[in-house]
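User: Hey, quick favor. My workstation is busy. Could you predict this chain's structure for me?
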Amino acid sequence: MRVGDHRYFMTNRNILFPNFLIIFITILVFLASCTSQKSITKGCNSEDFPLDKIYNSTIFIEGSVHNKETKNNFLFYTGSGGIVWQGEDSTIILTAAHVCNIEKTINTIKSKVENPSAIKHVMKISDRQNRVYPAISYVAALDFDACVIQISKIGNAKALPISKEDPKLGEIIYNVASPIGIYSDAGSPLFKGYYSGDFKFINVSDHKLSLFSLPAAPGSSGSLLLNKNMEIVGVVSSVYRRFHHLTVSPTIGQLRNLMSGDAETVTKHFINFNPPIVVEEKVFLWGKELPEWDIEIESDKKQWKIKK
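Assistant: No problem, here it is.
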């Protein structure tokens, strides 16, 4: 299942435990868990992890589909992500492709309304200062579920690099996410787990994906998986429905391919600027003056023309 799937529901069963067992389990969970989000600057079990240095680099994503004429809302969903590049005027966010690209759902909605052109998909990104940024565009690799979103510049937040080294089997991994929409300037959950290797999952992808022993839930989609050096080694994509401590991610090689422009992608523009804004991030990420995926119509050539 996709952890950002708004249709996902959890089923509860009534199970009775003796009182002493409940108290014992509560003590164990308390001793094994991390300290509170506001004060923590180290990971669990005293491993150094400077959360205070990457906290502002994590963001919250909200998406919706509505009819701009009737104001009817058809869909609302949330996701997570993190900053991977900072330009002069723009910020690039890394998240999961299914957080960005919901075209199948949009087309289904359009097929059921009188005026399909009135259906609008909106994405907005919130930072840790409670500032909200509309998505300008995205580039999504649907094959391995990764996406980069362009927004206006987020200030006072560093970009987190993709690790130059592949994660090692059993390596400790950290994750700051917004499961079930838990996000504010005061805090978000911090999770810790392990890299468990790369595998090919039946009925999921034709390519190998990375497996992490780390919890995730709806809303965690797109959150960054980081090593102790604050480097990205993965992005939360999906979890096993019956055991939420098995998290699937694109491999680090696939993320490198997305960032270098070597992955097959689809793109969408939410906002077109005229005159165009500074677009130096296009050169940084893809190293091309006119990336093929941007040239959907002739007018785009002028929009994405690199400034000399």
